Amino acid sequence: QLQFAESGGGLVQPGGSLTLSCAATGFKLELYPIGWFRQAPGKEREEVSCIDTIELNTTYADSVKGRFTISRDNHKNTVYLQMNSLKPEDSGVYYCTTMLYDCQIDPAASWGQGTQVTVSS
């Protein structure tokens, strides 16, 4: 089973920045498209961003475009999510997981524990 370890979350004021990391155990992240998702209390999990394996194509939810940047470091077997200009509505637990070809959602994806992001003054 694929295992992920998300880290980098925390408490930040509105307008602040955080960088989340997604590390993999037992497999190479570079072989898969990787997506970041988030879930706020009482809401469904939503896709935030994805980075494909081919030409490193990236996608972003409209709510984070221009503020978040997804990237890979294959040497470190890690995918990052740089989050700038954070808003209270960005709060939630952030997860990473593998996606299918062309960043399609994988219904059989494995999920880690996630990392909590709280944006509040």
In short:
With 121 residues, the chain is mainly beta. It has strands at residues 3-7, 10-12, 18-25, 34-39, 46-51, 58-60, 68-73, 78-83, 92-98, 115-119. The termini are far apart.
Structure description:
The chain is mainly β and 121 residues long. 0% of the residues lie in helices and 45% in strands. The protein has strands at 3-7, 10-12, 18-25, 34-39, 46-51, 58-60, 68-73, 78-83, 92-98, 115-119. The radius of gyration is 13 Å and the shape is globular. The protein starts with a strand and ends with a strand.
Q: What descriptive keywords fit this protein?
A:
121 residues, 10 strands, globular
Task: Write the SSE topology.
Blueprint: E1 3-7, E2 10-12, E3 18-25, E4 34-39, E5 46-51, E6 58-60, E7 68-73, E8 78-83, E9 92-98, E10 115-119
Parallel strand pairs: 2-10
Antiparallel strand pairs: 1-3, 3-8, 4-5, 4-9, 5-6, 7-8, 9-10
Strand content: over 45%
Number of strands: 10
What's the number of helices?
Answer: 0
Structural class: mainly beta
> What order do the SSEs take from the amino end to the carboxyl end, as H and E?
EEEEEEEEEE
Q: Residue-averaged pLDDT, rounded?
A: 94
Contiguous low-pLDDT stretches (5 residues minimum) are none
Major sheet attributes: 6 strands, mixed
Distance between the termini: 39 Å
Overall 3D form: globular
Which bin fits the share of residues in helices?
under 10%
For the CA atoms, what is the radius of gyration? 13 Å
Strand order of the largest sheet: 2-10-9-4-5-6
